[in-house]
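pls design
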């Protein structure tokens, strides 16, 4: 009797096991299908929000800008203008022609705005100081040329509107810069303190408070060194801006947002920015690049 029932018992057990496995597989398959459907719906919703501009794009966006190095210690601004011109498809100019058009070695942001406008590009010049800041006459970086540059710079500011240059007294937020870079709506030439560009910062002073300018003159902070760069992209995954630095041998540099903010808000920059677009389209030639 035992020998007869054992095979039957084993057969039932195997059948039950197979049935359970089949049921579990079916439920697992159903669960996976539901999860996949939910994931697809989530991705579709995210894509819709991106298209509507309600959430930022998940990838970085970098505009194509050829890298051009400066030749002298004073022509970083001209190198930036040349890079922007090339990005806009203007290849007829070089350093020599730009130096002829801007025949000075003490170059201010407003000089660069006039150069860009001369070639038909749309330029918005944002700054927190309209004209030459007289406080900078005490700074070693400005001291030598401030007396002769002051009246010229003031005149250029006064005539900017007639030249087709929009000058706005405002501080551009980091959020706006990020949005512009992700949208590819403009290239930006920024005046920065070169000593802070690599992330260097001056430790916060304890009481009594002291101005950055005085700290610099007392040797308590790195001396201000004005320098122009082109901001051409942003990577939200790493919170880093992509820049073209005419003083760098690297074709492209990636700078932490905090470092760029410290460099462009440093005492001596007036937070000068040139927001440049081509007249025929809302953006210069661009390309999405994943880093």
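designed seq:
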């Amino acid at each position: 009797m035992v020998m007869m029932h054992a095979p039957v018992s084993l057969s039932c057990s195997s059948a039950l096991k197979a049935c359970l496995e089949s049921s579990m597989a079916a439920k697992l398959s159903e669960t996976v299908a539901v999860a996949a459907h939910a994931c697809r719906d989530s991705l579709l919703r995210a894509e819709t929000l991106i298209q509507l501009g309600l959430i930022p794009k998940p990838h970085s966006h970098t505009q194509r800008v050829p890298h051009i190095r400066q030749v002298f210690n004073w022509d970083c601004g001209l190198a930036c203008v040349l890079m922007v011109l090339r990005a806009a498809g203007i290849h007829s100019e070089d350093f020599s022609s730009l130096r002829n058009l801007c025949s000075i070695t003490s170059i201010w942001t407003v000089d660069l705005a006039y150069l860009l406008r001369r070639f038909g590009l749309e330029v918005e010049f944002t700054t927190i100081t309209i004209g030459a800041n007289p406080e900078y006459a005490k700074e070693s970086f400005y001291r030598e040329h401030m007396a002769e540059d002051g009246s010229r710079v003031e005149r250029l500011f006064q005539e900017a509107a007639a030249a087709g240059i929009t000058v706005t007294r405002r501080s551009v937020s980091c959020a706006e810069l990020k949005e512009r870079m992700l949208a590819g709506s403009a290239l930006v030439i920024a005046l920065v303190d070169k000593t802070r560009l690599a992330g260097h910062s001056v430790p916060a002073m304890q009481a009594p408070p002291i101005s950055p300018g005085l700290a610099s003159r007392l040797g308590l902070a790195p001396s201000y060194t004005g320098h122009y760069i082109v901001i051409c992209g942003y990577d939200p995954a790493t919170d880093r801006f992509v820049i073209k630095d005419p003083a760098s041998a690297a074709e492209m540099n990636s700078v932490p947002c905090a470092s760029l903010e410290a460099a462009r808000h440093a005492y001596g920059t007036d937070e000068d920015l040139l927001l440049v677009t081509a007249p025929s389209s809302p953006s210069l030639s661009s390309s999405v690049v994943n880093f």
